[in-house]
Every structure is written in structure tokens, then in C-alpha cells.
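C-alpha cells help. Our protein:
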Amino acid sequence: MRKGQRILFVDDEQNILDTYRSSLRKRFVVDVAPGPNLGLEKVRESGPYAVVVSDLKMPGMDGITFLRKVQDVAPDTVRVMLTGHADLGSAISAVNEGAVFRFLTKPIPLDEMIRTLESAVGQYSLVVAERELLRGTLRGCIKVLTDILSLVNPEAFGRSERVRRYAGYVAQHLHLKHGLFLDLAAMLCQLGCVTLTDTVLHKAYRGDVMSPEEEKMFRMHPAITADMLANIPRMERISRIIQQQDDALVDNPTMPVEARILKICLDYDSLRQRGLNKRDAIDVLRRREGVYDLKIVDVLERGTAGEDGFVRRELALAELRPGMILDDPLWSVDEVHLMAEGTELTETALIRIQNFMKAKRLPTKIRVLLPPSRGRGLSWKGLHEALGDFDGYAVAV
């Protein structure tokens, strides 16, 4: 048996639960719940359980309904059902519908129960191990991609970091259920800009007139990003959000809420970078009839675009730390553009700064925003923790 993996038995008869606990406690960590309602409470408050074993016939809620609810609450948990011979039709139906991993007929010999539980615990371990492998792969891929963007194209990276903070503010105040999808899309939304020349990118970000060919090149970058992400497992939803980030609501009324938020935040940032103050930028967004979801514009207007609570300081470069945000662009003394205003400092970015400091090619001080203790977008540690609860990456049993 895998140590530490817990099993929950649910039945409406306490004497049966006591029998399970006493006969299996030497092999498994056993918990019991007298009835389906208490079983669901245990799953929500005391989980995760590797396996939940439920009787079929229980008052108030049958075992099929109960295990489906367990699947909603804890999709990784392996579900096993106990049934009498007369209930075989219902049990087979439950298995065929995917609600349970196995069903057992009563009375069941102890050795058969043990074999089934060991198999179920093994299945749970496989599911968890595969999911953790996917999460580790995803975290590594995203960090490599954003680090490359910060080094190759600091202006595009700075834009994605600013947009990420704006979007994080909106998601928080809209109580977005899966804010991590939006956070990752915002982090990666400018990745395709690595294919553009500096001239095209400068014109696009500053609102300068572009030739038809230049405009076509710039409009392709979301599709290029989406194609890049298509090669990473479980990134399909994030890829779709990015691919629709430039769509107008009137042209794509079914676009997901994450893409609507990203569209507004990107256009808001463009207006701010062109010199408009916050009030004027919001007014411009409102005048573009049919382009935006105005409920999202309302949320952005009520706040300070995700920057509330930040404290501005002028620090020596040696005092910079991960998580601080540049309040000025960082240029070397020989006019190499290292990082854009709004860039959140990462460990990779600090290594680059240190290398330029050793070559004595940087100013001695720069203005930064110090993040508040709460209300920021996800740090890499936060991303790691959030992915632990990211049910979009769960592997079906």
C-alpha cells in the first residue's frame, strides 16, 4: 500500500462502517462517514481521499448520485461502489456512465476488498503523478518562454507584465472562478512579438501610422503565439484566449470572458503608453461602441488598473529584488534598452542587470514600484501553488 493515502467508507449502517475500519486499519488509513451527506462533508473538509467506497442503497441519496457529487468535488478521487446482487443493473449503469472505478457485490470477501482497494489506490497514484508531471512541464515551459521574451524583447515583456496586473485586478473584482487561465494568457499574450522588427513594434505600441504590410504583420502575433502554445500539453484554453485577444465583442459575441478582459486591458495599456491619463483612456474605450464588454470597463474604471497599493521608491540597482516593478524603463549608458517600464523583476532579469552592472554600463539608481503584501498578480511561487489547485489540468479517472 502507498503510505499516507486515505480511504473513506460511506454507508448508512454504523456497524458495517465499524467492521470496515477494524478489518482494514492495519493495511489502510481508513475514515468513515455514516451517510452520503456526511460523506460529502468529509470529502470537502477532510480530503483529499485516494478512494471513496460507497454503498448503493442509502436513504436520501443513492450511491450513484453520491459518487457523482464526489467526482464534482474531488475529481482525482477514485470511486468504488458496493451493491447487492439485486442491484447489478444499476451498478453496471453507473460504471458505464463513468461514475465509478469498480463495483463490488455484497457480501464481499476481505481479500477481494483488499485487492480492489490496492488497485484503486494505485490508480489514484498514477493520476496524481501524471498531473504533477504535466504541471511541472507547464511551469518550466512558461518560465522559459517569459524569460526569453524579457531578454529578446523587453518592450513586449513589459507590456505583458502591465497587462497581467490590469487583468489580475479585474479578475479579482469580478470574482473570476479560474483566474489562472487569464493570468497565464496575459503573461504569454505578447510572445508572438518576438517575430516582429523593432520598428513595427514601436509603431504599434505608440499608435504610429503603419503601412498595410506592417499592420498585417502585427495583427498576426496572437495567432503566432497560439501556434507556439499548441505544442504544450493542456494549453488549449489559454491558446484560444490569446487567439481572440484582439476580437471586438460585436464580431465575436461568444468570446470567453478571459479574452474580453485581455482585449480591454491591452487596449487600455496602449492608450496609457501613448500618453493618455487613466480617465481619458477609459473614455476612449467607452466611445468604441460594440468593441468591449462595458461591465468589464466599469470594473477597470473603479480601480487603479491593478496598481493600487504599490509604493514608489528610487533604489540603487543592488537593492532590486524579485517582484519589484520598474517605474521607469531601464537603459544602459550606451543606449541598450534592457527592460521596459512596468516590467516585474524576475531572477533572470536580475542576473542580466548584475552582468551589466559589472560592465559599468548602467545608471546607479532607478525608480521602482514595491508591491503590497496583497492584491498582486501571481508570483512564480504563487503560480506553483495555484497550479496545485488548477482543475483544468486534472486527469480524468
Observations:
- The CA atoms of residues 67 and 99 lie 6 Å apart.
